[in-house]
Specification:
Layout lengths: L1 H7 L6 H19 L10 H17 L8 H14 L5 H27 L9 H22 L4 H24 L3 H15 L4 H5 L2 H22 L2 H15 L4 H14 L7 H18 L4 H15 L10 H5 L6 H30 L5
Length: 359
């Protein structure tokens, strides 16, 4: 699933779209098929898949400049603020090895945190038996369902149209991701596959819209009142007063930038409020414009996995019900440390080889 997220990020430049349109339904179907308890919070497989996919999506979105819209926003702000010129190729080169490292270790790290198979360790033969059983159950269910009918074919067609609009809609028609999603839902409603009453019954989705909109409005209000600007100025002044320069200053500012995201429900609002100011301080402290831009821009992806409101795909996975708020925050903080370690070790060594440090 994490590798699938990585591959689809090339075609679907939105974590929210990938979560709501592709991976959320897959995780729900797989977890329900393995359910041993009707209560979602007791479904360890669902907890593992949901949390891992959310964290994996946050990491893989850093691979491409076009992986999320706010990557491009950061580069535009950096060009206007410090004159840094980040191209698609330079971004990909800088992120490729660290992101692939995270893709390789993240499922194993989440497995240690969640332990979906219990505290015991399955033997190789037990794992093979479970795999064969799962394959057999899937085959039996497909046989009972029979060949795809009209509703399934229409649903597949609507999905193909929606994914196509997510991929090229903005470049061809100026259509954003939300409009593309509404087109897909409209096709299902017009074809009769989905009824409005069925839409109204999706209480979790409506609940998600309401409270997530409230969180975005709250964070935007704090930004408009100047609260975040004051915080940004304080953090910048603190780094200057401590005499931090170059790498240490950039690392300190990145940490401040990452964990201040607990007060934001919008990446765009956070970037607008803090990114330019922290970037200026980092460059004035001795970091190169390119290095500072990449470090702070990639910090956006580390912070995106912190909470159940930290990014657009967070409510999609959280509302599946497989993780409590305590679990979500705990996994988010732990995996943020894992990502920071990978970027400070593998990432910094890789950037040194590419000649990014100090340029």
């Amino acid at each position: 699933l994490v590798i699938g997220e990585l591959l689809l990020s090339v075609a679907i430049p939105s974590k929210s779209a990938r979560a709501g349109g592709v991976f959320g339904p897959i995780i729900a179907a797989v977890a329900e098929g393995d359910a041993r308890d009707e209560r979602p919070l007791n479904n360890k497989l669902g907890t593992y898949l949901c949390a891992t996919q959310f964290q994996g999506g946050s990491a893989t979105a850093a691979l491409l400049l076009t992986g999320t819209p706010f990557n491009v926003l950061c580069c535009d702000l950096a060009r206007d603020t410090v004159g840094a010129d980040v191209t698609w190729g330079s971004w990909f080169a800088a992120s490729s090895l660290p992101v692939l490292t995270l893709v390789a270790i993240m499922p194993a790290a989440m497995h240690l945190l969640v332990r979906p198979g219990g505290s015991g360790r399955a033997t190789a033969s037990q794992s093979l038996d479970r795999g064969a059983l799962a394959t057999g159950l899937a085959r039996d269910k497909l046989e009972k369902m029979g060949p795809p009918g009209r509703r399934e074919q229409l649903t597949l067609g609507a999905l193909v149209v929606t994914v196509a609009l997510w991929s090229v809609g903005e470049s061809l028609f100026g259509m954003n991701n939300a409009t593309a999603g509404l087109c897909g839902v409209s096709l299902l409603l017009l074809s009769g596959v989905l009824t409005w009453d069925e839409c109204l019954e999706e209480t979790a989705a409506w609940d998600c819209f309401l409270w997530f909109a409230a969180m975005i409005a709250l964070s935007s209000g704090l930004d408009q009142l100047g609260v975040m600007a004051v915080f940004s100025d304080y953090a910048s002044g603190f780094a200057s007063n401590m005499g931090l320069t170059d790498g240490p200053a950039l690392a300190f500012l990145s940490i401040i930038y990452i964990y201040s995201h607990y007060f934001f429900a919008s990446n765009t609002a956070h970037i607008s409020a803090m990114f330019p100011a922290l970037l200026l301080v980092a460059v004035s402290s001795g970091a190169s414009p390119l290095e500072a831009t990449l470090a702070l821009a990639i910090s956006n992806h580390i912070m995106s996995g912190l909470t159940h409101y930290s990014s657009g795909n967070a409510p999609v996975y959280f509302k599946l019900g497989y993780c409590s708020i305590e679990q979500w925050w705990s996994y988010g903080f732990t995996m943020s440390l894992v990502q920071i370690v990978v970027w400070l070790t593998v990432g910094r060594a890789w950037w040194s080889m590419l000649g990014i440090l100090g340029t």
